[in-house]
Fold each of these.
Amino acid sequence: MVSTQSTRIQTRGNCDIIDITGYVSDAVRDSGINAGTVTVFVAHSTCGVTTVEYEPGLVSDLKDLFNRVAPQDIPYAHDKRWGDGNGHSHARASLLGGSLVIPFTDGRLILGTWQQVILIDFDNQARSREIIFQMMGE
Ligand code: ZN
């Protein structure tokens, strides 16, 4: 059985890091599927998803990491082409990836105690983001 759901959230952009674990859990529960996998996917080119221990220190560390890996204040060919100033946002999103697969049993996500699912919005402005959850199982 396959069940596809989606939800929309507002972000502040600029490396906004949002705990979306509750949305994923709700989608799995609402699907009525007992065991399987859920794919979490963002259909956008300037945000991504991953897992982390969601606490202020790591939220800050992750922002620092992306500032070091793909700084905003260096030239990007994308900015020269479009002038939208978010070349760093696209580069960071491609590096992080736009999807994640999590297994579940008994209708519950199999996550570590200190492991939350997060969305990071790298765009250079606030955005409305659609998150897609596709549950496959029985
Ligand atoms: Zn762009």
Note: The helical segments are 21-31, 56-69, 77-82, 87-96.
Amino acid sequence: MRRAGKVVAEMHEATRAAAKPGVTTRQIDAVAREVLERRGATSNFLGYHGFPAVICTSPNDMIVHGIPGDYRLKEGDILSIDCGAIVEGYHGDAAFTMPIGEVSPLARRLIEVTERSLWAGIAELRKGNRLHEVGRAVQKVVEQAAFSVVREYVGHAIGTAMHEQPQVPNYWPGSPGPTLKSGMVFAVEPMVNAGGPETRLLDDGWSVVTADGSLSAHFEHTIAVTDQGPEVLTLP
Ligand code: MG
Ligand code: MG
């Protein structure tokens, strides 16, 4: 899983460098495919319930699961890129949101708060702690900034499949959840809206947008619980 995580980190670096005004999201997908090929890794996104690409690209009010295509990035957009890889049967999964050129102060703050909420959640992935402390920590950071946490889509355990049980909500679900043990691995992935938390699925059956049209950001890492604390596997 460390090796899969390194491939995902390399996909992040390559796609981040490629995402500029004038570039289409399909071109960014092609850059991610090159990384997978170069590293001899396979895609856990391509073909997942028929998904046609190796990354998800979700601009502006799109929360997650955007399909790379003809959308051409422009100055002032924000773009969420979600990447995954399989190495020898083990999965990595991580996402980030970036500004395209100069963006509004609100967009910058949304990106900063969402990334900070991810790290607050990661800090809770300690042996003996309860899993839902992750969501409680994420929610606190987000709501203190007067943003909202998406409820319909959540993080997940990950291993020989991308989406394993249990789920990892980004909010306090009303119960503490399972006790964490060394060797457990989770994808923590806050999805944060500048407006309300409600979502809407577009007609393509994949793209999830904010119901109120507000901006949305998404950060994700794959993290192992170890005796020494959380180990983030999807960092470079
Ligand atoms: Mg992901
Ligand atoms: Mg995920």
Note: The pocket of magnesium ion (ligand 2) is lined by residues 93, 156, 187, 189, 220 (CB under 6 Å).
